[in-house]
Amino acid sequence: MSFESFKRPIQKKNLRKDRSIAECILCIFLAIVVSIIGIHVLYNDIYYDLEILVYCCVMAASQYSLLKSCQPDVNTPVHGFNRNTAISRAIYFCLFSSLLLLIHKLKTYSWHCILFGIIFSNIAVCYMIYNILSIILLCLPLLFLFGLLPQCSTFFLCILENFDMHLFGGTAMINIPGALHSFLLSIINFIFLSIIGYYGLLIDTSKDHMQNILFSIYCGLTVSICYKLSRGSSNPNVFWNMIKYDLLKIKRIIRQNEDIQDPLPDKLRTIVKERLQSDILLCFLICIVVFAAHASTTFTSLQPILNYIICSIVIILGTLFHYVLPQVRKQLPWLLFSEPLIKQADYALFEPTEATKVLFIEKLFVWIVFIEKNILLPCTYLGALSHSAPMVINKFGLLPSILILTLCSMKMLRIGYCNPSRHFLYVLLTTIMTYLMTSKCSETFLLNYFVLSTLTEKLIDFKEKLNFIFVYCAPWQISWGSAFHAIAQPFCIPHSAILVVQCLMSALLNSPLMPLLGSAAFISSYPRPIKFWEKNYNTKRIDNTNVQLQAQINEFHCGLDDNNLNAIFYEHLTRVLQASLCGEIQLGRLGKVNTGDFFILTSDSLNCMIHLIELGNGFITFQLRGLEFKGTYCQQREVEAITEDIDKNRGLCCCEAGRFPHMLSLNAAFTQRWLAWEVICLKFVVDGYSIKENKFNETVVGYDLRKRLISLMIKAVIFYAIRSDQLVSWLENEQIRQAMMQFSDPDQVDVDPSFTTLFDDDFKVGAGGVTKKTFTFVYGSWMNLCNNKRQIPLSSSQEDDLITFCFILSLLARRTLSSSLPSHHTALLEIYHENFVHGFYSLFKGDFRLAHKDEWAFADMSLLKNVIAQGVRMSLKLNQDSFLEMSEYLDNEKLYEDIAQNDTNLVITHEASPEWRNAILSNKPSLLALRRALVESIDEYRIVMLDRRHLSFRIVKVSKECVRGFWASQQHELIFLRNRNPERGSIQNAKQVLRNMINSSSDQPIGYPIFVSPLITSYSSTSKPINDIIGGELAWNLIKKTFSTFFQRAHVFFLSHCVGNASGTNEVIQLAERRTMSTVTAAAHAQQSSFSVPATSTLPDQIRPLSIQQNMNTNNSGEMPVNNTVSNKKILPSDQQTSVLVKRTSDSLVTTTITTTTTTTTTTTNDEPTRRRSSLSTELNISDRNNRKMFNALNNSTSTTIYSNKDLCTSSNNQINKSMVTYSTNGSSNEKVIIIDTTAIYDSINLGRRIDVIWPNEQMRLNGGRNVWSGWMPSVGMTGLVVHRWIPRHRDARQRSHIDKCILLVHIDKHDKFVPIAEHGVRFIGESTYL
């Protein structure tokens, strides 16, 4: 080699450049370590002859890769240079060589053990591992060539994940810091429990019955710690943020431009805090209960019968609820039936109108799983430990025994808590192996469970890989995407045996089996974690906050296309699933779920894939990948295959023989069995947005339509200008007043090319422009109305300034619209239709280009933002609605109401604005935007309308080996083989495996999803159905509140039974006064005092504590009128009285309230408390049960006040005063009617059906129908009071009649019944106090 080869320019080309000093130091260190370890391997004579040469070449290649690495390598997950790949070869060489040296030293030690009837000798095991490692070291270049080893970071994550899952029963790992956190946590708890268990066994001398306190503490701690480990996610970021911001009180750094805060991090931190509080309490409780159960000798004295009973219960419940129930709830149970055997409540509905109702079987399933986790699992563990511990100690000794027992216990408990559906299967296999097989081939229950759980997982993976191969290569449904596929198909048949070996090896190593270039030739990829992708990739939304202003004007150059704008709907779906997905899984609506499962959700426009990564106790970590709305042809074909109606398939081989009712035909059943996916649920209901699009181009085609749009725009601008709180300051602004002075003359003409008689209603033909006088003539009444609707209308002296200000604003809006048009169209008469639409769109998104004469608007930029922009956007909505109700918009009152209502309930903004994303993620009910789309190089403008409602998705479960195989194949083809053909055969549609949808969902740039969410965790505590069934998280405040309420009720109960105790009676009175006063005061602060309720009040307004009549006649005993006796016999005005009188009689505890202002109080006479106490003390012992019931009813009721006579129990001759009932409803409370036609009575609309009316309150409904009248029926001549009215087609659903007749709700006081009756069935007989 000449000296020229070592010159610097040539070496720069041959060697890669290190970008940092740390990287250079790391490479030097690895090169030195490779040399040292290689020398030790050669020194120990591990290799001989030619093997030494090969080993030296491998060592040299490892060192050279630090200087010049192969890029791209087969195992690299990204395009371009990957630094992890550059150092991976050296790290693998050091790792395998070190293990080889370690095994070489361990061969000298001799020991053996017998497990499952097999003798495991140290020498035999070490020689086997020694030979494997020596071969692997020599074959390292080939392993790297075929991509069988991942990069070092991925390898480290896989090792930690598999160790934690198969040794300690953990779940999947999200990233390396999380994996280290979870694995170290498992190790620390394992050591801690082993120490306690060791000393517990050390105390026990017999070693036959582990009944001592310390070992019972060990059992309790094991269950409680495993419960806590199963409740924690492998991502510790939220937990550390909670410690940082809540415990350490570190102030969060808020960015300057971050106006809108994302509520999700704070929500997750609150949830984790609540779960942590609950876990601390429950772990303490579990530890005590398990300790007591083990110390009771129940699990030692009843062996082995107790184990048989517990395992039988676990197996029976598991078979029924984890196998049979998910099958009968599938869309195609056992692939034999054509519909579910247990259907959801909304299964037959075309579109859901509410959230899916929880079925009884779902509640039962939740409770069964709860019992399995919290009762049967600890019992199974204690029984297995009591059975296994003595035998393990006798076989292995004390120290190894406690390590084995602790390891097996942790795995069993954590699997049982995290995945009950797999736990029952492991228990079934373990029971068969432990109690039915011979003792030579079996070990104890815990050891059998530990081994069988791992073997079963590997066998299931092996079965799924074979199933994927068979489905994909079936000759009757193969879909060749290219000529290579057709050639590779027949050549793969002779290699079937090798394929089975590959399946077995890939199942053991947890590596996907990928089709080469999408063909039928399969090769193994490198091991991957359950998360699969090494790079934490998620899409970033492009909007006005992260795009330069110049790029915003030409939006297609910055990525503001349809896909970017549609990604927000998948982000919203992710937030919705974050709150509900875990609860839906616990209700069993997604069938049997395991770690790493894939689901595809399809609807009319949304198609996404959900990857379940981490499955824990009460939480799910998942990732959502959204596909294009209007996908490719291949994607549409696969969506059609998912939504295909297989009921129409009635084929039997080659003929149409039909099928049995509710059963699949033979051809359909055969076809469904040869698919790598399965429909789980036909209607999965979640909250979302229905998307409607209209073409804006078609709404402004003619001159008249454009003229109407401009007129509505001007009215909307006037509305926002007059309604603004800054109107007075604008009118007084000096710069604005100078602009207004130009039009002091009403006939002053503004001549501008943008004004024309074709578009402007106020255009003056003779003057050739727009004048203030014509503007006032056209829009004067509208300005008048807007001014009168202000909270403080402007005076008449300011009317001229107001008109002038609105006039110059209208000129500004119209000129801005004209200046937003393309520059080569200066005269409005020359503007074509497309240019007008483009100009309006530019104005809608906030592209204001002001003329020189309109620069006065810069005096306050809020004029453009809050008046012009809002007016332009509101005009779009008004123009859209005008096609439906144009006649109503001619009425200014109606137009004003619509604008005000839309301004309150509707969000109108551009989709690139951050307010649009914030509104969607905040679940605003309605949104509207104007979108520009490029369709075949033609601009198309669409009005996008969003309405929040319940969306129905079809859920499809896809084989996880199918998805992992296709993803690995695409990564290998695009990155390593560099196939850049956009129409390559590996992404063509294959309906049996959904090849195109799976490949499209992979990370960019391999796939092309429009949205990829970060890894997000869903908790069961955010699911309302789960909280309603088993309750939420156990918190300190809840316990404190529960105990406080219990002791308070106990205090009241015991005081009320103190006979003759005047002081106790007084405390009861004071307690009741405090409770009632708090209720009345809260109501008084919440609403104004009033004796009447408007007829149009809504239900929340109707349920108010109303004032009652102030003056009541005295009773026969001469009692003073209630609330009228004051000091010095002065009666305060009714609007200043606030009094609460609590009276205890023989059958009621009565409260009289008067709602008034809170600034004054009522002073009672000095003898009133004494007289009240004396009257109550003599009656405390009479009818205590009725008194308590009335006291409870008093606290809960806010719409009914009951008066009762004090001396009812002592004088039977006194007249009983009827209860006075005052209702806050839409019916007049003083209308008395008489029934004249009983056929008009609707006695069955109180059954709570969806077709029934909505009742004012539940008490009325429960007393308003034939089913509760108990034989009583209303008759002609009965009189009553109208308390509610249902009107046909009423806007409020609570006041809407379900038929075309007005229905009255009449209270028959004599029988205390509520009678719904049509209005023609009664006759009004005037007003009445109706006592």
From TrEMBL:
Domain Pecanex C-terminal per the UniProt entry, residue ranges: 797-1023
Keywords of the record: Membrane, Transmembrane, Transmembrane helix
**This protein's GO CC annotations:** membrane
Q: Where is this region: Disordered?
A: 1158-1177
Chief subcellular site?
Answer: membrane
Transmembrane stretches, start-end: 21-40, 86-103, 109-130, 137-160, 180-201, 280-299, 305-325, 364-384, 396-413, 425-446
The protein's matches in InterPro entries, at most eight in alphabetical order, are given as:
Pecanex, Pecanex_C
Where does it localize? Membrane
- Keyword Cytoplasm appears in the UniProt entry: no
Its topology with respect to the membrane? Multi-pass membrane protein
The similarity comment for this entry is: Belongs to the pecanex family.
Name of the protein in its database record: Pecanex-like protein
Instruction: Report the source organism.
Output: Rotaria socialis
